């Protein structure tokens, strides 16, 4: 799954570079992908030394817990930043859409600040000295309740997942468009709920592993969920950005035309800046408002930012002139 996440993020960057629209959300996805690739290495050794997939009764007497704890520590260091970077990328992408009400914009700022703060807090909450985590011959000066810490931070992360999923709903619910099209647009962004579902199953498995007596976590899928969650998050995050590439590969499927369209539409030069590729409207230029204007789209030409004007979506937005 790491390979699929790498290919997906690579396709996203290729699409953005071809449209000359690389932004901070793309750089965050690149960082998350690199962390995800790095996570695959300790994940492999953890599975190897912990004998994941085998019943505990089949574990040999030569089993050594020290390398297991060492690679588990590295996995924890890499796991949390991936989810935080992906969520931050989504929030920055929503900001690039532009034209938001002030309440929405400040909600995105607040949620992103909390998300980044949580990432830093988790990263710095460690056992002192760090080596005491895997080397039991080292006496810890400061110790944390590992199982409770894992579960608590995972639950907080799930809460932020739900909040990130609510933002697109808040943004798109005000669009003037057919109900079916509006629902479809919201569903595209709510696909990220699959990642949240995996995260919930992960918390359940963590609780069983640490608190359910007699539960054999080795002989279950619990330890695979962390890798599935972070890679799936990266893949889902890249989904909207890949639409221009899919439309280029499958023009009939992603043309965005309907039988009742007249073919008349406003020219981009009348309303804002255009990027190379023809008719590309930069909604990110519309953060501040003084005048009201209506934007009516016909069929997007290249960027997911155009999702706000796709297929005749009508929304009152403010622009500077």
Automatic annotation (TrEMBL):
One of its GO terms (cellular component) is membrane. This is Rhodopsin domain-containing protein. InterPro entries: Rhodopsin_dom_fungi, SAT4-like. Keywords: Membrane, Transmembrane, Transmembrane helix. It comes from the Eukaryota. Its main location: membrane. It comes from Fusarium oxysporum f. sp. raphani 54005. Residues 11-248 form the Rhodopsin domain. The chain crosses the membrane at residues 27-47, 73-94, 106-128, 148-171, 183-204. Belongs to the SAT4 family. Pfam families: Fung_rhodopsin. It is found in: Membrane. It is a multi-pass membrane protein.
């Amino acid at each position: 799954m790491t390979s699929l996440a790498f290919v997906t993020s690579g396709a996203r960057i290729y699409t953005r570079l071809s449209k000359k629209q690389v932004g901070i959300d793309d750089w965050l996805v690149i960082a998350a992908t690199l962390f995800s690739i790095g996570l695959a290495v300790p994940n492999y050794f953890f599975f190897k030394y912990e004998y994941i997939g085998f019943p505990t009764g089949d574990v040999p007497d030569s089993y050594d817990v020290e390398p297991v704890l060492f690679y588990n520590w590295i996995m924890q260091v890499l796991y949390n930043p991936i989810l935080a970077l992906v969520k931050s990328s989504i929030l920055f992408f929503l900001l690039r859409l532009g034209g938001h009400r002030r309440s929405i914009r400040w909600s995105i700022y607040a949620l992103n600040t909390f998300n980044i703060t949580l990432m830093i807090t988790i990263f710095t909450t460690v056992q002192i000295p760090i080596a005491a985590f895997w080397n039991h011959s080292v006496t810890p000066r400061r110790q944390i309740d590992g199982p409770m810490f894992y579960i608590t931070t995972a639950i907080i992360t799930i809460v932020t997942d739900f909040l990130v999923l609510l933002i697109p709903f808040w943004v798109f619910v005000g669009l003037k468009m057919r109900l079916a099209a509006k629902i479809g647009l919201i569903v595209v962004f709510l696909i990220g709920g699959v990642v949240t579902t995996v995260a919930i199953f992960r918390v359940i498995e963590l609780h069983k592993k640490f608190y359910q007596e007699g539960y054999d976590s080795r002989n279950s899928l619990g330890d695979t969920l962390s890798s599935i969650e972070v890679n799936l998050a990266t893949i889902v995050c890249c989904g909207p950005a890949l639409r221009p590439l899919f439309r280029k590969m499958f023009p009939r499927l992603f043309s965005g035309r309907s039988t009742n369209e007249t073919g008349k539409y406003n020219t981009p030069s009348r309303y804002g800046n255009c990027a190379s590729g023809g008719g590309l409207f930069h909604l990110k230029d519309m953060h501040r408002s003084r005048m009201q204007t209506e934007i009516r789209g016909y069929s997007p030409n290249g960027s997911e930012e155009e999702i706000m004007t796709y297929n005749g979506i009508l929304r009152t937005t403010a622009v500077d002139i």
